Amino acid sequence: MKKTILWAALCLLLLATAAQAAPVTVKSAWLTEFEALPAWYAHERQWDAAAGITLDMRLYPSGKYLMDNASSIKWDVAGLGGAPGVLGMLRKQACVVGIGSDEAAANVVFVRADSPLPAALRDSPSARDYARLVTGKIVLCPRGTSAHQLLLLWLDKMGLGEDSISLLDTPPDEAIAGLAGGLGDMAVLWAPATHAAERAGLKPLLTGKDIGLVQPTLLMARTEYAETAAPQVRAFLTCYLRAVEALQAMPRAELAALYQRFQREFCGQDISREQAMRDVDTHTLYPLARQRELFASEDGLQRWLEDVIVFHERTGELSRGQTRKLRELALVRADLLPESLPEGE
Description:
alpha/beta, 2 domains, 18 helices, about 50% helix, about 15% strand, globular
């Protein structure tokens, strides 16, 4: 009898130990974009398990969808653009825990092949002459997005406002089909929609990087989750940033091939080697040391978030009272960045 009791107690102890050691599932939400690559690679290499978690990775159609449905989806961590991210911060739904990538070079103004704008830009016209070519044009662009932010800054550079053009609030797929079919004069898009635009015969005019814009994608955690599960958020950042450093050490061709596989296996879309190379070249990833610098610098993450806040105020999405409230909130959690990363493979 005593042996039976001892055996039962030992089994219970082993089960409790196994349960304790089992990785905790972290629900992560992503778009079909570059900032999801490190998370996917970390999960493939089982670096999430090494950090004590299992990344459950799910795809969603947009950052706006993620923030609008945060209470029903109940994601724990997510990667999305600054434009929808800031609105989530205002509602105290989420906070920034890291930087995914800079996608300014992947936000592009497209025109049809017969547009006079590319030739005019190559001839370096005066701002007045260039503005004359743009004034009155019909632009297909989703409002409140990083593409819209690029459009407004470009108009600013020419001394124009949004009222100088006709902006049609158009989702990327519809914008590509519309412009290729003769509707409008320009479309403003982001990768990977830019690949579809090129396949449709549209021509890039300029990117956000061309005009000095920085457009970070953000790694965010639901506010409640960051407060109650800080070790899991830190574990997520540990495996994510471990993958960032591994990806940065890869030869360009190897990274492009990996990115093609990521797009095929996780995002469900095939892209060419050339498109993969371009996405690799037009997205900047930030290792742990650089993340720390950007979190601490007044000209880093806080400045980038301020640019997004100003953008939303200009479009009317945010009132002055709301922007004032945003500036008073603790928007970022630098304390959740890991102290260090595991060495080697």
